[in-house]
Design a protein that fits this description.
- This protein starts with a helix and ends with a strand.
- It has one domain (about 5-130).
- Helices cover about 30% and strands about 25% of the residues.
- The protein is of the alpha+beta class and about 130 residues long.
- The structure holds zinc ion (ZN).
- Zinc ion (ZN) binds next to loops.
């Protein structure tokens, strides 16, 4: 499966390096600015790339992105799980009012939820939280 195969296919199996960069840049921009506008742009950008490749999910080393039903466009799910209450990147606490760590997605299960956090420093990590 070399480059020649990819060029002849109508639909690529996964986003090109450039499109992967587009997603990562949108995520980094949201994490550093943390505004409603950049969050929406991030989720729409992810969805647009996934739709272009007609895939519903793509995994990076540290997180995966998934297409969802409207109006959420897409979700980000961390692949790295922490037990701690601090960001593994910069040490900022997760549960601080108006802090730098934001919830990116919540996956609900009966007993506990899998919460994906994104920090202003750029780190994305997941944590199992009690559902009660
Ligand atoms: Zn951090």
């Amino acid at each position: 499966m070399g480059d020649s195969t990819m060029h002849t296919a109508n639909v690529l199996a996964f986003p090109s390096r450039e499109d992967q960069k587009v997603i990562r840049t949108a995520v980094e921009t949201f994490l550093s600015t943390q505004t409603g506008k950049t969050r929406e742009l991030m989720l729409k950008t992810i969805r647009a790339v996934l739709d272009r490749y007609r895939i519903s999910r793509f995994s990076f080393v540290d997180y995966s992105v998934c297409a969802t039903r409207e109006p959420a466009w897409s979700i980000i799910r961390a692949r790295h799980i922490v037990e701690d209450t601090k960001c593994p990147g910069c040490g900022e606490y997760i549960y601080v009012f108006k802090g730098v760590v934001r919830i990116l997605s919540i996956e609900e299960h009966s007993q506990r939820h899998y919460v994906t956090y994104g920090c202003r420093c750029g780190r994305i990590f997941g944590k199992w939280e009690s559902a009660f």
